[in-house]
Amino acid sequence: MEKKSTEELENILGNTSPDSIEAFLQEHSGNMIDEEKPFAKYLHQIISRNGLTQQEVFIQADFPERFGYKLLSEEKRTKQRDYILRICYAAKMTLEETQRALTLYGMAPLYPRIPRDAVLMIAFNKRCGSILEVNAMLASHKLPTLKTSGSLE
Q1: What is the pTM of this model?
Q2: Between vectors from CA 141 to CA 140 and to CA 145, what angle results, nearest 5°?
Q3: Assigned domain for 3 exists
C-alpha cells in the first residue's frame, strides 16, 4: 500500500461520512500514527541518523541533560514550542523534519505568514550557525528570541 500524504488524507476525510469512519480507519491504517510516543521515536531516529548523541543535542540546545532526556522520552511534556524548536535545531533537523516533529509533539508547525516563524524557517533551511546566531538573527529583526530552558515548564 502506498503512503498517502496528509493532504490526500484530508481530501478523503472531506468526503467521508460519519457512517464510514470505521472503513476509513481500516483502509488507511498504514497511514495512521499508531505508535506510542511517536515524537520520541522520530527524534531518536533523526539524532542517530545525523551521527549525534542526545548529550550533544542537549548541549547545543542549551538544556540541562536531565530535562532534555525527560523531553525526548516524553516523560515530561512542555507547552513551550521554543523548547522543541531548540532540540530540532540542535539535532540538525531539516525544516521538513522539524515540521513533522512539531506535529508529532502536538504543536503547531512553523507558519510562513508569521514573521518570527518565517525567520526560523530560513534558519532551518540555511543552517545559520548555532542557536545563539539564530537568536541574534531574530533579535536583529526585533522578534522574540527562542526561549531558554531557564524557567522549565
Answers
A1: 0.79
A2: 75
A3: no
Residues of the chain with pLDDT under 50: 151-153
Q: How far apart are CA 141 and CA 115, in angstroms?
A: 9
CB 63 within 8 A of CB 23: no
Count of CB atoms situated within 10 Å of the CB of 8: 13
**How many domains does the chain contain in total?**
1
Measure the CA–CA gap between 151 and 142, rounded to whole angstroms.
22
The residue type of 144 is: P
How open is the CA angle 140-145-146, to the nearest 5 degrees? 145
The model's pLDDT over 114-136, given as tens digits with 9 standing for 90+, comes to 999 999 999 999 988 899 999 99
Give the CA dihedral 44, 49, 50, 52, nearest 10 degrees: 50
Record the cell numbers describing residue 4, joined without a space: 498517502
Tell me the residue range of the domain where 88 lies: 38-151
Distance in angstroms (rounded) separating the CA atoms of residues 36 and 132: 33
